[in-house]
């Protein structure tokens, strides 16, 4: 099932061209078009499309103003900016406002198809992640899979560390102290054949600490140290991906890992922080989401050897 689109542009030829490309390429359905920002706001709030293609420069209300107005009114769709503007500062401002992609004028069919295909892929990744999280409570099926594999044709075993090291490399965290702790958590989850809800983080930290500490006091102290090491490591991954996104928003590593491991709002905030040369030591990261996704991605790769 394709995405739904709304096109907002004061040029009727551009609207018609984009609509034809979307329909002929079977990228989705155009649920509305508008000649300006004010009309577009009304139509978008009524039709609630998945994606808004919006012109930057319009006579009544420019694209960024329209986007901010839509955000204030609770619209949470995705935006693709249509523009001739090449100024990097203005482009950066657009990204920080919630724009995920640009389509340059004059309109080029190949570029439109490429950009909207990437938008669709991002939507599929987000949907995939949502489904993974909602199905965590049903991971007991992994136990059945493990039993079936005992009678299946043997395959070359792969360790969890072998599987996740390339992921660490792509996230820019190889060598970070927290990687050892994260790998230990992955191994622990794998050994348990994790079923049911994802365990609390404190339980994971204490489980790892207990594997090499003896007294309750030592375990508690080490669990807190593990938490800090992992938080620093995950923050480093966030910073690495945000830096890639600032220099090349279409970089495959950024496109795959950023929306998969982090909330887009956190990525955008980190990009803004880097762009403004600020050092916010309290960057927001969801460690639980990071560990959940890493475990499920590693598990998927181990099962598909």
TrEMBL record:
The keyword Mitochondrion does not apply. The keyword Lipid biosynthesis does not apply. PROSITE patterns: RESPONSE_REGULATORY (PS50110). Keywords: Kinase, Phosphoprotein, Transferase. InterPro entries: CheY-like_superfamily, Sig_transdc_resp-reg_receiver, ST_Response_Regulator, YcbB. It comes from Paenibacillus bovis. GO terms for biological process: phosphorelay signal transduction system. It holds the Pfam family Response_reg. One of its GO terms (molecular function) is kinase activity. This is Histidine kinase. Residues 4-120 form the Response regulatory domain. Coiled coil: none annotated. The modification 4-aspartylphosphate is found at residue 55.
């Amino acid at each position: 099932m394709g995405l739904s689109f709304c096109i907002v542009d004061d040029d009727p030829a551009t609207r018609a061209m984009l609509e034809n490309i979307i329909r002929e390429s079977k990228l989705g359905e155009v649920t509305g078009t508008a000649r300006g920002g004010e009309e577009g706001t009304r139509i978008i709030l009524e039709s609630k499309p998945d994606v808004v293609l919006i012109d930057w420069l319009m006579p009544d209300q420019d694209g960024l103003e329209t986007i901010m107005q839509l955000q204030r009114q609770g619209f949470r769709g995705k935006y693709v900016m249509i523009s001739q503007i090449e100024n990097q500062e203005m482009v950066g401002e657009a990204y920080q406002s919630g724009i995920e992609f640009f389509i340059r004028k004059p309109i080029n069919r190949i570029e439109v198809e490429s950009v909207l295909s990437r938008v669709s892929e991002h939507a599929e990744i987000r949907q995939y992640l949502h489904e993974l999280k909602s199905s965590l409570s049903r991971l007991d099926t992994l136990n059945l899979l493990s039993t079936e594999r005992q009678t299946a044709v043997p395959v070359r075993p792969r360790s969890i560390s072998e599987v996740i090291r390339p992921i660490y490399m792509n996230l820019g965290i190889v060598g970070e102290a927290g990687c050892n702790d994260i790998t230990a958590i992955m191994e622990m989850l794998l050994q348990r054949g994790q079923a049911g809800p994802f365990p609390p983080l404190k339980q994971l930290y204490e489980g790892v600490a207990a594997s090499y500490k003896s007294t309750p006091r030592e375990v508690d102290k080490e669990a807190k140290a593990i938490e800090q090491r992992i938080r620093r490591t995950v923050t480093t991954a966030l910073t690495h991906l945000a830096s890639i996104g600032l220099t090349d928003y279409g970089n495959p590593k950024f496109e795959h890992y950023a929306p998969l491991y982090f909330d887009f709002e956190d990525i955008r905030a980190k990009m803004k922080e880097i762009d403004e040369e600020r050092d916010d030591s309290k960057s927001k990261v969801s460690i639980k989401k990071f560990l959940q996704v890493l475990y499920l991605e590693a598990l998927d790769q181990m099962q598909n050897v």
